[in-house]
Each structure stands twice: as C-alpha cells, then as structure tokens.
Amino acid sequence: MQLTLYTDYALRVLLYLGLKSGERGTITEISRSYGISRNHLVKVVHQLGLLGYLDNLRGRAGGLALAMPPEKINIGEVVRKTEPNFKLVECFDMRTNTCPIAPVCALKGALYEAQKQFLDVLDRYTLADVLGNARDLKMLLRVPDSPPD
Predict the structure, then answer these.
(1) Could you read off the pLDDT of 11-50 as tens digits, one per residue?
(2) Best CA proximity match to 72, nearest among 52, 99, 58
C-alpha cells in the first residue's frame, strides 16, 4: 500500500507544527524545511484547517498552528480523512469492478484484512507519539527551539 503525496504532506505539516509547541508556523517555513513545493502545501493546509486539525490565521500576525493538542490527533484518522480512496484493487469497488473472478476470489479477503490491519496500527498512534524524537526532528528540519514561557 502506498499513501498519496497529499497524505504524506498532511502528516509532515502536522509533525512540523507539532514541533512548534503552540507557536505559529508558515507554509513557506514548512516548504523550506522539507524541500517540497509551497504550492502543493497550500491545498493540504487548507484542508487540514477545514478538518479541524489546524488553526489557519491570515494576516500579519497570522500563520498556522495545531488546533488541538498532539495527543488528540490520531494518525489513522488523519490518513482516512486525507486519502482519496482505499481501493487497493479493482474489486474493492463493485460499481467499477470488471474482474471476472471477483465473486469467488479469496485474495480479495486477504487484501482487505491487510488493509484493515494497516489502519488499525495507525489508529494506535497519535501525533504526540510520533513526536517522541522531537529534538532530532527539530534539528533535521531546522525548527528553532521555542522561547521559554
């Protein structure tokens, strides 16, 4: 199974902003840190805001921040909400299926079970869990440490 770049970028945005400890970041910062197109991130950030994961604020004092604590952001949920479809094989969509063996194929069940296990594992993790190595991530992404309160 392969996630789309869209979902990959959504997860990267959440990771980056999780490292900011409540401080706002920008699309440009995220783009530079990961070496990915700013234009690709604009749509991702917009959807993450609509889904309630980000607080997107325009203007001079604006920027992006997590809209909830990292402990509340479930990785499996994010993947489900950002992936366009989970039809690993044609027969997962009976409306468009043309496979002649679909009615008796046992492979379909195995693939469905594997997909379910994949998502079940992701459901066990939150953003906080995958930020456990924050110091190393900050160094690689060049995210400055937050000023003390």
Answers:
(1) 999 999 999 988 999 999 999 999 999 999 999 999 999 9
(2) 52
Measure the CA–CA gap between 127 and 64, rounded to whole angstroms. Answer: 16
Q: Torsions phi, psi of 130, nearest 5?
A: -85, 0
Whether residue 105 contacts residue 91, with contact meaning beta carbons closer than 8 Å, is answered with yes
Nearest to 80 by CA among 42, 123, 49: 123
Alpha-carbon 122 to chain mean position:
11
pLDDT digits (tens, 9 = 90+) for 90-147: 888 888 889 888 888 889 889 989 999 999 999 999 999 999 999 999 999 999 876 6
* Contact indicator for 68, 52 with CB cutoff of 8 Å: yes
pTM of the predicted model as reported, rounded to 2 decimal places: 0.88
DSSP string, 66-126: ESS-GGG-BHHHHHHHH-S----SGGG-TTT---TTGGG-SHHHHHHHHHHHHHHHHHT-B
Cα–Cα distance between 85 and 3 in angstroms, integer? 10
- For the chain, domains (ranges, CATH) are 5-83+126-141 (1.10.10.10)
Cα separation, 35 vs 79, whole angstroms? 22
